[in-house]
Specification:
single chain, alpha/beta, Rossmann fold, Helicase, Ruva Protein, domain 3, 2 domains, five-stranded parallel beta sheet, 16% strand
């Protein structure tokens, strides 16, 4: 009986996800791809790195998602003078009590938008790294756990590199997906202009999911089946980024400096399950893996200077790998 109830609850959750996308669409126009990837990260406990020029509704989308799911949201503008204490908090001396008190920073929230994350130096990045990986922060001598769900959504501008700090590979690898946000179509931008030029535009959003629903959906996605052949296919894809010559990718081998880490295989598995769940399936298809492979791998394949000189991108390498590696029967 409980199994039937679980199936019914799962159907309700799958329907709610479709409603969430529609509800976000009341505010955000034409960024369904970004919304889908943000939901994958939220429901599989993975951080997201968004790359795109300013003005593509990245902040608005995250803020709207937080409203629809009744989650605490904080936006942190990363700047060269940002300090770790500005992020995680610090100890404040209370003169009345003659003792130090903890003042928690904006990191204590469910959704963190780290805007232009590459504009802050290494000390700030290291403080963020603990929060991302361990889901905790240390202030003074005390360690504090972060609320669940906790998700870092970071943005970086691919055009303006002046005054930026390249993110360490170890930190970039902590992001489940790197999503490239593109311009909308002419028709979509026309709709954006019409909405936003109306100063009284303020749609009422419904709360569709709670924190408890999100944790329940995570468990349901975890139950999505993936066959052994597809598990091995994921491993082959990852190894092809490390040893491309072994897979007949000799041209690509000259451009790859480092391949994807073991986190890539874990995240590819989780993300493929999420896509299957969104499509209301209990099992993963090869198409699910191929659909999400670029977002999982594009920031984990380190290319050399030859690739830059020849105009070869990580996307090109991934496309070649997907075309070459076959699913074992």
């Amino acid at each position: 009986m409980s199994e039937v109830i679980d199936q019914e609850l799962k159907k309700v959750h799958q329907q709610k996800i479709s409603e969430v996308i529609s509800e976000v669409g009341k505010v955000v126009v034409g960024q369904s791809y970004m919304v889908n990837r943000l939901l994958i990260g939220l429901f599989t406990n993975g951080h997201i790195l968004l790359e795109g020029v300013p003005g593509l509704a990245k902040t608005l989308t995250v803020n709207t998602l937080a409203d629809v799911m009744k989650l605490d949201f904080k936006r942190i503008q990363f700047t060269p003078d940002l300090l770790p204490a500005d992020l995680i908090g610090t100890m404040i001396y209370n003169q009345q009590k003659s003792e130090f008190e903890v003042k928690k920073g904006p990191i204590f929230s469910n959704l963190i938008l780290a805007d232009e994350i590459n504009r802050s130096p290494a000390k700030v990045q290291s403080a963020l790294l603990e929060a991302m990986q361990e889901k905790q922060v240390t202030i003074g001598e005390t360690t504090y756990g972060l609320d669940k769900p906790f998700l870092v959504l970071a943005t970086q501008n691919p055009v303006d590199q002046e005054g930026t700090y390249p993110l360490p590979e170890a930190q970039v690898d902590r992001f489940m997906l790197k999503v490239h946000v593109n311009y909308t179509s002419k028709q979509e931008e026309l709709e954006v202009m019409r909405r936003m030029s109306n100063l009284s535009f303020a749609p009422e959003l419904k709360t569709l999911l709670t924190k408890e629903d999100i944790m329940s959906i995570r468990n349901e996605i975890n139950q999505v089946a993936i066959s052994e052949s597809l598990e091995k296919y994921i491993i082959e894809l990852i190894f092809a980024t490390r040893n491309p010559s072994d897979y007949g990718l000799k041209d690509e081998a000259q451009y790859i400096q480092f391949g994807a880490s073991p986190r890539a295989s874990i995240n590819l598995n989780r993300a493929a399950k999420a896509i299957a769940f969104f499509d209301q399936r209990d099992y993963v298809l090869p198409e699910d893996i191929k659909e999400i492979a670029d977002d999982v791998l594009n920031h984990r394949i380190m290319l050399n200077y030859e690739a830059e000189a020849d105009g070869v991108s990580a996307h090109d390498i991934i496309r070649s790998i997907l075309g070459k590696v076959q699913i074992a029967k």
